[in-house]
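Researcher: I'm preparing a figure for a lab meeting and need a structural model of a single chain. I don't have an experimental structure, so a prediction will have to do for now. The sequence is pasted below. Please return the structure as tokens so I can convert it later.
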Amino acid sequence: MRPSRWVRAFAIWMAFLAAPALADWPERPITIIYPYAPGSDGHARALAEAFQQEFGQGVVVVNRDGASGVIGMRTVAQAAPDGYTLGMTPMTPIAVQPHMVRNLGVGPESFAPICNVTDNILGLVVRANSPIHDARALVREAHRRQLSYGSPGPNSIPFIAVHRMAVSTGGDYLHVPYRGSAVSVTELLGGRLDFATIVVATGGAMIKNGQLRLIGVFSERRHPEFPNAPTMREQGIDVVQPSYAGLYAPRGTPEPVLERLEVACRRALDTEAFRRAAAAIGAAIDFRDRAELARLVDEEYTIFGRVLRELGVQPQ
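Model: Understood. Here is the structure written out token by token.
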């Protein structure tokens, strides 16, 4: 036999040996790493609960935060590719951070996508007494004078959303970075900013009680909790900036395991417990299968690379 045939024969033999083990998967508890601090992980825990019922094995969520999600997702990338260690995360550590830090050890090539779970919809908010009532009015005002706005920090996804809007429509914007969306909302309410760009869930309670006005969202669809706020595209501003959160396994995880996990994910998102958990944090359920999530990761990685180069960001 030629070497290539030996390789194929060996692969077939190894698949034969692995088949019984994969048929019995999972045979022990599964860990889902959530690479951020406790408090915003309710949907991850609801997913774990659904998986536990689906597989008949324990599923535990471990919070391993730090470095904008990189520390936790690096743990996932370095784990054995056997389906027992997974990561649930927004795309930041996978599609943004690799453009900012050299030799990060995390990137699209590090993972096998399983399913997209939610879209943490981004939006523009103003004070309730602001004369700005929609995104078009905000852009017009930015052409008349400089508008100050807050975001969770330089090169964060909310910041990038406004940058893309400014490139698309023009206008004069002064970025004021903060450590988290909650602080920028406080500064906005205190009258020290003209608007803020946030994950809508962060200001959800204040939008509902009338302290804030949501004037537009950067998603492909309206936020289910705030259907009266139009998308940017509906307002003639051709910018979509999603903030997808998905489930990932280490690269090299066997296909049968990934298939079982994808099916379980689809079922989990249909449960009442998961719908309640997503609603509690203001996240919009947005199931995407493995192929679609892989496409989205590659697309967002390319987009963020281009935008960060436009901003002059050089990897450190």
